[in-house]
């Protein structure tokens, strides 16, 4: 998606979902940051070429900005998305997602790759469903939790395409698929109020049905 962009995970950061992801009302009070959240971070920035530190903020309230709004370099807007308060992440950012061929004299030479160690100190969450910058395509199998009966699937070809966070799918998908990586797989259990509610979707989905989806993220455009 962004050639040359590298996320280097620390111990407490793992973008691979290894356990079933269950949607509940708690999911409406986000624990991880996303586009439009106001966050504060501690960070240390170094040049990858010589490990020389050029900037830091490690005391007090930290550095505050709104994620995904262009208030920081593009590598931060992309690389910090999905962090949790208290989490730490190392991001290696190529020049075209930092200061480009002009650099930021005198500290950052032109065409510099930067390395940041970042700790998320606080987040003023938007309490809105995350708005993705991208259209995604997925493979999925949907079943009723009550009897494990399959009611829908898309497992071949380009997959099912939609824009995350735009209300093009049920609310449980907009929340439950956020933060996935291409090639990643996730099981989401979605209560009726975040799916088809007390009306259901006859004849396949009865009223007040809890749904279970196994989803694989195939592509991001």
UniProtKB/TrEMBL annotation:
<keyword id="KW-0697">Rotamase</keyword>
<keyword id="KW-0413">Isomerase</keyword>
<protein>
    <recommendedName>
        <fullName>peptidylprolyl isomerase</fullName>
        <ecNumber>5.2.1.8</ecNumber>
    </recommendedName>
</protein>
<dbReference type="InterPro" id="IPR046357">
    <property type="entry name" value="PPIase_dom_sf"/>
</dbReference>
<dbReference type="GO" id="GO:0005730">
    <property type="term" value="C:nucleolus"/>
</dbReference>
<dbReference type="InterPro" id="IPR001179">
    <property type="entry name" value="PPIase_FKBP_dom"/>
</dbReference>
<feature type="domain" description="PPIase FKBP-type">
    <location>
        <begin position="36"/>
        <end position="124"/>
    </location>
</feature>
<dbReference type="GO" id="GO:0003755">
    <property type="term" value="F:peptidyl-prolyl cis-trans isomerase activity"/>
</dbReference>
<dbReference type="GO" id="GO:0000785">
    <property type="term" value="C:chromatin"/>
</dbReference>
<feature type="domain" description="PPIase FKBP-type">
    <location>
        <begin position="136"/>
        <end position="221"/>
    </location>
</feature>
<dbReference type="Pfam" id="PF00254">
    <property type="entry name" value="FKBP_C"/>
</dbReference>
């Amino acid at each position: 998606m962004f050639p040359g962009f590298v996320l280097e995970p620390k111990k407490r950061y793992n973008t691979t979902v290894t356990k079933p992801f269950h949607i509940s009302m708690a999911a409406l009070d986000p624990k991880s940051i996303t586009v439009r959240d106001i966050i504060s971070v501690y960070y240390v920035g170094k040049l990858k070429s010589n490990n020389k530190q050029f900037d830091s903020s490690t005391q007090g309230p930290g550095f505050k900005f709104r994620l995904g709004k262009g208030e920081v370099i593009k590598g931060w807007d992309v690389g910090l998305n999905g962090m949790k308060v208290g989490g730490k992440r190392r991001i290696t950012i190529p020049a075209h997602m930092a200061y480009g061929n002009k650099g930021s004299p005198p500290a950052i030479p032109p065409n510099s790759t930067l390395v940041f160690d970042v700790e998320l100190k606080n987040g003023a969450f938007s309490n809105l469903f995350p708005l993705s910058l991208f259209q995604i395509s997925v493979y999925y199998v949907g079943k009723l939790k009550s009897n494990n009966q399959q009611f829908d699937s898309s497992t071949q070809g380009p997959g099912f395409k939609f824009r995350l966070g735009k209300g093009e799918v049920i609310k449980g998908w907009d929340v439950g698929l956020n933060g996935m990586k291409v090639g990643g797989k996730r099981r989401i259990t979605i209560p009726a109020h975040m799916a088809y509610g007390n009306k259901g979707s006859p004849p396949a989905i009865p009223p007040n049905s809890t749904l279970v989806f196994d989803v694989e993220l195939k592509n991001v455009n």
